[in-house]
Design brief:
By secondary structure, the chain is mainly α. It is built from 3 helices and no strands. The chain is elongated and about 60 Å long. The longest helix is centred in the middle third of the chain and has 28 residues. The chain has one domain.
Length: 66
């Protein structure tokens, strides 16, 4: 946990320009990590129940004819 505190202190010490640059970098980093976790969960079948539920919901919706 000391490492996290060190990171927090380093981020707090950044000037506004560096903080903005770090924020952009971290947003991209976090987004990529999220994508990797989601892909791994999907490949492992962890999202199958959610997909089945969504498909069941879709099948029970009244569909409008165009």
């Amino acid at each position: 946990m000391a490492d996290v505190k060190s990171l927090e202190q380093a981020v707090e010490a950044l000037d506004p320009s560096a903080l903005a640059e770090f924020s952009r970098w971290f947003a991209a980093f976090d987004s990529a990590a999220w994508d990797q976790r989601l892909e791994a969960d999907a490949a492992a079948g962890k999202l199958d129940a959610l997909l089945e539920e969504a498909e069941d919901d879709y099948r029970t919706l009244p569909h409008r004819q165009l």
